[in-house]
C-alpha cells in the first residue's frame, strides 16, 4: 500500500453545497414558521386540545403517505403519445380550473 493521497473527483465543493442548502433553507422557512405559528395559535388563543392540534398537522401527512405511492404507480405506468405524466397534468389542471371557476362563480 502506498501513502499517496489522491484528490477525489466525485466530491461536491463546499460552495455548491452551501448554495444548494441556502436555497432549500429559504424554501423551508415559510412552512416551518407557519406550522409553529399555527400550533402556537391553536393551543394558546383557541385552547384546542394538543392531541387534536397535533392530528391537524399529522393527518395530511398520513394521508399523503398512503396516496403518494398509489399515485406514483399510476403516474409511472401511464402511457400516452404525449408522455407519462403530461396526460395527468393536463387532466388535473383542467379539474382545478373548473373547481376554481365553480367556487368563484358562487
Lay out the secondary structure.
Blueprint: H1 14-44, H2 50-76, H3 86-105
Transmembrane segments: 21-46
Organism: Thalassobellus suaedae
Family: Belongs to the sodium:galactoside symporter (TC 2.A.2) family.
Question: Would you write up a description of this structure?
Answer:
The protein has 106 residues and is an all-alpha fold. It has 3 helices and no strands. The longest helix is centred in the N-terminal third of the chain and has 31 residues.
- Count of DSSP-assigned helices: 3
Shape category: flat
What is the mean pLDDT?
86
Strand composition percent:
under 5%
Low-confidence stretches: none
Q: What's the multimeric state?
A: single chain
Radius of gyration (CA) equals 23 Å
Q: What distance separates the N and C termini?
A: 78 Å
Give helix and strand order, one letter per element, not per position.
HHH
**How many beta-strand elements?**
0
Supply the helix-strand structural class: mainly alpha
Major β-sheet, in short?
Answer: none
User: Percent helix among the residues?
Assistant: over 70%
Amino acid at each position: 500500500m502506498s501513502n499517496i493521497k489522491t484528490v477525489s473527483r466525485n466530491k461536491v465543493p463546499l460552495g455548491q453545497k452551501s448554495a444548494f442548502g441556502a436555497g432549500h433553507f429559504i424554501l423551508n422557512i415559510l412552512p416551518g414558521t407557519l406550522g409553529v405559528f399555527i400550533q402556537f395559535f391553536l393551543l394558546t388563543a383557541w385552547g384546542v386540545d394538543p392531541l387534536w392540534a397535533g392530528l391537524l398537522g399529522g393527518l395530511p401527512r398520513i394521508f399523503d403517505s398512503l396516496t403518494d405511492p398509489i399515485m406514483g404507480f399510476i403516474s409511472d405506468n401511464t402511457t400516452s403519445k404525449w408522455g407519462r405524466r403530461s396526460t395527468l397534468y393536463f387532466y388535473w389542471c383542467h379539474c382545478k380550473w373548473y373547481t376554481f371557476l365553480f367556487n368563484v362563480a358562487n
